[in-house]
Amino acid sequence: MEHMNDSVVAEFVLLGLAQSLGMRFSLFLFFSLFYVGVVLGNLFIVFTVIFDPHLHSPMYVLLANLSLVDLGLASTTVPRVLSDLLTAHTVISFHSCMTQMFFIHVMGGVEMVLLISMAYDRYTAICKPLHYLTIMNSRTCMLLVAAAWAIGMIHAASQFVFAINLPFCGPNNVGSFYCDFPRVMKLACMDTYQLEFVVTANSGFISMGTFFSLDVSYIFILVTVWQHSSSDLSKAFVTLSAHITVVIMFFTPCMFLYVWPFPTESLDTFFAIVDFVVTPVLNPTTYTLRDKDMKLAIRRLSRQVASSREMSPYILHQHRHDH
Q1: Hey, how many other C-beta atoms are within 10 angstroms of the C-beta on 118?
Q2: Which residue from 36, 117, 190, 307 has the highest number of Cβ atoms inside 10 Å of its Cβ?
Q3: pLDDT higher at 295 or 321
């Protein structure tokens, strides 16, 4: 933290997504609608898992944590984007920029580990069903969740300690609508080639390696099911299709943002919007529409809400009658 005092730059300039008032209004509506979907959809999954005893299993505990992370990931950038679109003010303070970078990578690291944990859960459930309750018990689930948050913090902190100590004394245009390590590091008044490689390895290569590892694991599960019973293959594929969709939606933008050697402003903006806005709103939809237990839980919850509404006038009437 010593070098923070040496930094002349006290604020950074973010990329404005649009210049004209009409385009800014259209983008504001787009981001607002998607963010409302992110908040409502992910909170709905969290509360459904909490209040439905039938969903108190490792798979749905991991899903609830994934929903919290998706909500957190979207909240690191979208509220700021909405504010910038309304005011056309695209300046962010040094401390706010650093804070945004840190939490983006905390959430990204946690989500990565959660997706690995969910793949392991599905592997155990499909390939070792007789041992599932022994392997994926509540203690194991809690350890996986704790490990996900711990690794997310370590992942972010390992890059943050370098970025916070960089000297910034010249250009301050980030060239993106949010702060991230690769973009901000290039503005430092020193040679950051080695640091940029560390960030690429930490975020890009790990994302790529995890993506291909998860793909291999899902293929292995499907092959194992096919060898044991070809009739169960379609059922297993339906079960895994939601997971595969989420993995592709999450890791594809990460690989382009951190590994793609020919970055362009428009491509980076597109994949960042996918990562921060589109994916967090699609995850709840993907799981609720393709998961039978989630559908049943939603119906039970709807019936409970409906019955409570029907009982309310009766209770009120009885209360008045008693008095």
Answers
A1: 22
A2: 117
A3: 295
User: Can you give the residue ranges of every domain in the chain?
Assistant: 2-296
**pLDDT at position 90 over 90:** no
Residue 204 exposure: Cα atoms within 13 Å on the Cβ side: 16
Query: pTM (2 decimals)?
Result: 0.86
Residue 301, CA distances (Å) to 28, 46, 298 in order: 33, 13, 5
Predicted local confidence at residue 194, as pLDDT: 79
Per-residue burial over 284-305, b = 16 or more CB atoms within 10 Å of its CB, e = otherwise: bebbbebbeebeebbebeeeee
- Output the six-digit token pair for 303: 């019936």
* Nearest partner of 15 among 88, 86, 70, 69, judged by Cα: 88
Here the tokens at position 165 are 């100590």
Look at residue 93 in the predicted model and tell me its pLDDT. 92
Q: Are 67 and 284 in contact (CB under 8 A)?
A: yes
d(CA 123, CA 169): 51
The hierarchical CATH code for the domain 2-296 is 1.20.1070.10
Calculated CA dihedral for residues 79, 85, 86, 87, nearest 10 degrees = 110
Buried b (16+ CB within 10 A) or exposed e, 237-273: eebbebbbbbbebbbbbbbbbbeeeebeeeebbebbb
Give the Cα separation of 5 and 284 in Å (integer).
Answer: 44
| Residue 285: both structure tokens together | 């939809």
Task: State the amino acid at position 10 in one-letter form.
Answer: A
pLDDT at 101: 93
Q: Which of 2, 3, 1, 14 is nearest to 172 (CA)?
A: 14
Q: Is the pLDDT of residue 172 over 80?
A: yes
Q: What is the distance between the alpha carbons of residues 210 and 112, in angstroms, rounded to a whole number? A: 8
